[in-house]
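Example 198, ligand glutamine.
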Amino acid sequence: MKIGVLALQGAFAEHIATLDRLGVEAREVRLPRELNGIDGLIIPGGESTSISRLMVSFKLRDNIKSLAKNGLPVLGTCAGMILLAKQISDSDAEPIGVIDIEVKRNAFGRQQESFETELFIPALGPEPFPAVFIRAPLIEKVGNGVEILARLADGTVVAAKQKNVLVAAFHPELTNDLRFHRYFLNLVSGQSKQKDRI
Ligand code: GLN
């Protein structure tokens, strides 16, 4: 299994380190040809407007969009989640639009721009997940067919999945808990089994 990690800007090295710890081959993706042969793709956190601009100038945006539409498992964390959304309520960056959610950038007030909290994520089991939020976005609206995976105590949606696309407003790559990445890799293995059957 080979996982591509979009390496234009932001926390890509941390995702690669997490994949290393899980014994999974990772490939930095900066050029369209580096998307060939990957089984899944991670779009990291960082600055969504910069990543969005770079994705267009490196001619990656349309390729990523069609791969995701064709079923390639994609994980977007924080800025990566913003870029995968159908709509961003407060930015003129044009998102890729492969998960039916509307997100709001920098959604948490000043005092709480960055914080860590224990999240209950049923899909990962009963142990709470240590979620790190850094100038994080939130999910304001969720369309039909989107599975909500995690909420903050006040009900705010912070992780979701629609078919092959998984997003989190927080940074699972910055903790020692590997369960979120493992969940994504299960999605990837499920998808390649399906490919084998065709
Ligand atoms: N606030 C950033 C943005 O809007 C996202 C922050 C992050 O990825 N940690 O792009």
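Summary: The mean pLDDT is 94.
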